[in-house]
Amino acid sequence: MVSITPRYWFLASAFTLAVSLPLSPVQAQETSELKPWRASFLSIFHGPPVGNLQDTWQPTPQGERSVMPVLFRNYASVNWTPDQNLELGVTQYFVAVPVLGTQFAYRDPYLRLGVRDLLSQAVRTSWAADLRLHVPVSNVSRSRDLVAGLQTYHNVSTPLGSTRRLSAGVVASGRVNFYGSQGLGSDLELYVGPTVGWQASPKLGFSLTYDWGASHWLGEPLGELISDGTDIQPAMSWDVTPELNLSPFLNFYTGRNTSFKGSSVGFTLSLQLI
pLDDT averaged over consecutive 10-residue blocks of the chain (274 residues)? Predict the structure, then answer.
């Protein structure tokens, strides 16, 4: 049985999920006609190294074979939108390993309160934000005596130029974890990811993101953060249909003691069910 514990794919996973390209004209029109209830599915594939696409294991930043197999991180969500700017939802997260004998592992669900734009519509810059309450019901969280996780997520984007096809932005996230007396793990997780995007056509866009993450572990001196590393992630976003988006990406680790052999491939698949 493979232990599916976050490690080398922390950056790629958090940021493929968090960072999105500016809305295409098709998507922008849809957001102005939001249904009160929506259901969606998001799957993120963390794949093999660029140099060996048949490998069943993810690479380390140094280019070695890691302890993590290739896998899918999946999110099934139901959201209620009482008005055009507010959203309430619940998401169930689970991991699927398609190799070494197919395996599934459920992770903690979370409740979400989101605001689509904190700024005035008269301002060109958009600022989406939400607050997430992670409920520790999975075996992993209970073994670590996790009581709750509280996360805030922000996505700021502004168009560059008069055509709005080029944009720049930043995604930031902070999560605080609360533990019982037998707690084990990180009590603070931080992420910042500046990004630039280019909307080549109504259905096709490209982005380049620089990812940085750090965490503080329970019991360590206050203010002592452990870097989770940095990476650069070029991606393509393709609206196959108004309901289906496919976004392949490459992941290049940066910093000291990294190797090009540690670069990997992946993709996200986003599906609007209702």
Answer: 37 41 40 76 96 92 90 96 92 93 90 91 87 96 96 95 90 96 94 96 96 94 88 96 96 86 94 92
Place of tokens 């940085």: 212
Judged on CB neighbours under 10 Å (0-12, 13-18, 19+), 173 is: buried
From the number of C-beta atoms within 10 Å of its C-beta (0-12, 13-18, 19+), residue 162 rates as exposed
End-to-end CA distance of the chain: 36
Is residue 44 within 8 A of residue 70, CB to CB? The reply is: no
Closest CA to 86 of 118, 42, 123, 111: 118
Specify the amino acid at residue 159. P
CA distance 266 to 47: 5
* Structure-token match 């931080």, residue found: 190
pTM, entire model: 0.85
Please report the domains of the chain, with CATH numbers, ordered by start residue: 10-272 (2.40.160.40)
Helix (H) / strand (E) containing 43: strand 37-49
Using only C-alpha atoms, the chain has a radius of gyration, in whole angstroms, of: 19
